[in-house]
Description:
With 674 residues, the chain is an alpha+beta fold. It contains 13 helices and 38 strands.
Amino acid sequence: MKKIFLLFLSCLPFAVKAQGVMTPELLWSLGRVSAVSMSPDGKTLLYKVAKTDLATEKSNSTYYLLNLESNQVSTTEALNGRSFVQWDKNGMYASKGDELFRSTDNGSTWTAISTQMQEAENMKVSPDGKWIAFSRPVPAEKVLGKEIYSDVGNSTAQVYTDLNYRHWDAWNDGKVSHVFLASVDNPRTPVKDIMAGEPYDCPQKPFGGAEDFVFSSDSKTVVYVCKKKTGKAYAQSTNTDLYTYDIGDAKTNDLTEGMMGYDVAPSFSPDGKKIAWLSMKRDGYEADKNDVVVMDLATKAKLNLTAGWDETVDGGFVWSPKGDKIYFNAATKGTQQLFSVNVPGNVMVKMMPVVEQITKGIFDVTGIAGQQGNNLIVSRTDMNHATELFLTDMKDGSMKAITHANDVVYSKLKLSETKLRMVTTTDGKQMGVWVIYPPNFDPAKKYPTLLYCQGGPESALSQFYSVRWNFQLMAANGYIVVAPNRRGMPGWGVQWNEAIAKDWGGQPMNDYLAAIDDVAKEAYVDKNRLGCVGASYGGYSVYMLAGIHNNRFKSFIAHDGLFDMKSWYGTTEELWFANWDLGGNYWNKPIPKSYDQFNPSNYIDQWNTPIMIIQGGIDFRVPIEQGLEAFQAAQLKGIKSKLLYIPNENHWVLHAHNGLVWQREFFKWLKETL
């Protein structure tokens, strides 16, 4: 890794030369830690560390077994080229090719238990070990010209008569993903499609996985997540439901009928008597308050455990071994912390359960791996450190690192200081603003300063650690970073979070300016060297601020930002998002402010500042015309501008070499213009 790092560095005349600070090459070379599974007795943790080979862009993973009682850790070759599936009382499961294997000696020996896994993904084995559930693509309609007409085998034509013709970074090829069941005891029994004949997806596109279906504790039922809509209805709705499929009689029932928003992540209680899931109330609002709902399976009575809590659940959750608590992580005050809520034995209880915060600190709890005694194993990051796994005491919230993949690297780096600063907004509210200072910060000096505009728009600006929008790397290049928790971010109450809808270019822009104006009062901020950067809604924010900033900023960088709201509405895919956040379409009367007052392209006459525009070629969320329109307008106005076009990237940058070019061009542009 050191040789590769030096090779890349030698090719970079504009790279950071100082020793002991983060660089793009070092950032991409960090180990990426993730929990894989707990052993069924709770004594051992299987986890992996993935590292990117910067020469080949390939990711190589090393697996480790950690004894949670002795703290001894060792590498393991147990999987031996297989893909891990699960680890339960029946053994460890893994797949390779068309086969599913089981090991009853922690991976020393393996036995094939099924050879019916062709094209299988997201495999799960029932608690009794008799059934395998998995997803697989199936044909739903013919959209390819060569399938419609048998004599044109070389045709690349695609024919569509309804919406949902592309999603995220892939065109609809006429296939959907279904859940299948295979018998372990009777391997000659044909694999069964439990959604046969339905033109719907499970897991959900574009990011659904194994969390979208689960076996009941008695192995008699599969519960799966599905939005049973197609075409225009699908493109404008977030109403997923939980469906129960009875393996015995092959009957399907809607468990959440009448619940109109997202219902996802079903999970049975340890005793099998209850099921919990994450639920949103409103159809079409993808960033609605996310609650934990629990149902008594005998009575079908439901209880929203977090209804009285003024925040929103982030990601998944886990049951306690006794089934009397649920643990989850959520944003709060610019961080993500671990929380718990009691699960009443009788869900008809009149008194609402109280949500309790377990951890506190300047870090993000990003996931929960499992429970070991009175401790939870969680993943944790902060703005100076990539993910590691921690043992968390559930009584006092104290945390102890149990993985150390990048300790040696960080021990040799000069880290940044991060402070949460409270700023008064233009409407008299208090807004939390993260300020990240360069390593060896000297308040007697003046520093160029970047206003960072978060995407989402309703995503938390917390202590996250990104391989691209990395505050540690920005600070290491000598910049102060100002990152406001502007309107529209969770962690500051539901009302604050929802305030951005239909007001994209209004108060959130004032929040940005209030943040940079407040920090710019400090003597160490060079007011003549202020920049503004962001992606997605953050890119929209950059385009918008470019027209209204009144010469505050000297340079802009926008990645996959929304430039013209009419053309964006006409080309994006998830229309439920556009309809909710923009207030409808652009032919509505009266026309929503989003297409007029809050449309960045309407302010192009006021652009006068250098701008770099970054655009992914297969980004269907914010399609390519947005970046091209902005660049062309800037060029024709004679504004110093640059287009960084990455043909094979979607809304993100996932390839290491593209990521290195992104970061090199990012800092090169700032050096030229700031």
